[in-house]
């Protein structure tokens, strides 16, 4: 499914063990879900292995709650010679009314890797 946020790459439900001391989902948990989703999209673009090299503009908008269905959207934001920036948005579907709540967003940059784990050029866009 694709919309203005990009494609839904992951849908996950946090577990009770993902709760922090405030009763919300631990921020590191959602960061890892976003990194997984971004890596999937970046790997498709790079047609191979990628590594996360930066996270920029990370913004937590609303807390995540136990029972939220978290959808992680991703889309290409920009590309360089060896790297691609992926915009990632996490949205919760919450409660019986299926309310959509914006949770967090950020831009994750991935570098394409060759077989020796060194940066390599991305394939041409659209090919």
TrEMBL record:
<dbReference type="GO" id="GO:0009062">
    <property type="term" value="P:fatty acid catabolic process"/>
</dbReference>
<comment type="similarity">
    <text>Belongs to the acyl coenzyme A hydrolase family.</text>
</comment>
<dbReference type="InterPro" id="IPR033120">
    <property type="entry name" value="HOTDOG_ACOT"/>
</dbReference>
<protein>
    <submittedName>
        <fullName>Acyl-CoA hydrolase</fullName>
    </submittedName>
</protein>
<dbReference type="InterPro" id="IPR029069">
    <property type="entry name" value="HotDog_dom_sf"/>
</dbReference>
<dbReference type="InterPro" id="IPR040170">
    <property type="entry name" value="Cytosol_ACT"/>
</dbReference>
<dbReference type="InterPro" id="IPR006683">
    <property type="entry name" value="Thioestr_dom"/>
</dbReference>
<dbReference type="Pfam" id="PF03061">
    <property type="entry name" value="4HBT"/>
</dbReference>
<keyword id="KW-0378">Hydrolase</keyword>
<feature type="domain" description="HotDog ACOT-type">
    <location>
        <begin position="4"/>
        <end position="116"/>
    </location>
</feature>
<dbReference type="GO" id="GO:0005829">
    <property type="term" value="C:cytosol"/>
</dbReference>
<dbReference type="GO" id="GO:0006637">
    <property type="term" value="P:acyl-CoA metabolic process"/>
</dbReference>
<dbReference type="GO" id="GO:0052816">
    <property type="term" value="F:long-chain fatty acyl-CoA hydrolase activity"/>
</dbReference>
């Amino acid at each position: 499914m694709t919309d203005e946020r990009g494609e839904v790459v992951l849908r996950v439900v946090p577990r009770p063990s993902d709760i922090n001391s405030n009763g919300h989902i631990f921020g590191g948990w959602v960061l890892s879900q976003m990194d997984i989703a971004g890596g999937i999209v970046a790997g498709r673009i790079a047609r191979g292995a990628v590594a996360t090299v930066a996270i920029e503009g990370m913004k937590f908008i609303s807390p995540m709650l136990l029972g939220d269905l978290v959808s992680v959207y991703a889309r290409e934001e920009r590309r360089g010679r060896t790297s691609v920036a992926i915009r990632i948005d996490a949205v919760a579907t919450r409660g019986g009314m299926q309310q959509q709540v914006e949770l967090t967003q950020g831009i994750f940059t991935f570098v394409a890797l060759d077989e020796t784990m060194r940066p390599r050029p991305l394939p041409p866009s659209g090919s």
